[in-house]
Amino acid sequence: MLNRAELAAFLRTRRDRLRPRDVGLPGGQRRRTPGLRRQEVAELAGLSVDYYIRLEQGRGPRPSRQVLAALSRALMLTTDEREYLFRVAGEEPSPAPGPSRDVPPGIRYLIDAFADVPAYVVSATYDILAWNRLATHFVGDLSGFPEDDRNMIRWMFARPAGDSYWDDEHTVAFTRSTVADLRAAYARYPGDRSIEALVTELLALSPRFAAMWATREVAARHPMVKRVDHPIAGPLEFECQVMHIQDTGQRLIAYVAPPGSPTREAFRRLAGEPLDASVASWEL
Fold it and tell me: What's the whole-model pTM score?
């Protein structure tokens, strides 16, 4: 049965626990609320402010499963907390969610705030789901591409065997780590059709992918140093940071260079360059 009082108390405590920076919002200096404001949670969950306030006050209609799922994402609940939320709302918890293509609003705010850091979000299958302006100089302007044509792994293995891409040891190491991460997702989401379809396609089309897949390396992506020769900015060296987005299977990938370094200065110059819609993803 729905326990309105416990549901209200649980939502309040989870909201108080979060800080604006946790969801990519500015903190400000005059916040009276220790955690997120009610209107901020409502916006992150895609709910009306009035409806969310009534939930926290222990009144209003019983929340649907869709509303509970949205609140779980907005409040960044763990798997156990998500199950608890469903149960106090009088619902049986749904199975653990599979990989999602819905980028949390807070993550979009976060990458847009990176003015001189290229950043983008990929799905469990490495489809690029969101990107900031500076990332366009590295992955291309994807706004005109169909969603099915934004897959990083497919781009990598579509290159011919003699392409200079495969001559660089750092590039090959990056590619191997991506395949190992895909295998980790393959095990984490058994039976997921999107992952199985991509693996089946690449096994048939790319002997190089088949060879890497056959090694059965399994490892979630970790930070690594990349060196690239950018057609406008020239040689760049940066750390490719990979942040896991909770309960979505998504990764936030950011290219980070130390303050004052030549690469950081090059990023700043690129940020002021006009975007070239004709440039495809030349370097990941």
Answer: 0.66
Spell out the SS3 assignment of the chain: CCCHHHHHHHHHHHHHHCCHHHHCCCCCCCCCCCCCCHHHHHHHHCCCHHHHHHHHCCCCCCCCHHHHHHHHHHCCCCHHHHHHHHHHCCCCCCCCCCCCCCCCHHHHHHHHHCCCCCEEEECCCCEEEEECCCCHHHHCCHHHCCHHHCEHHHHHHHCCCCCHHHHCHHHHHHHHHHHHHHHHHHHHCCCCHHHHHHHHHHHHHCHHHHHHHHCCCCCCCCCEEEEEEECCCEEEEEEEEEEEECCCCEEEEEEECCCCCHHHHHHHHHHCCCCCCCCCCCCC
Give the model's pLDDT for residue 280: 47
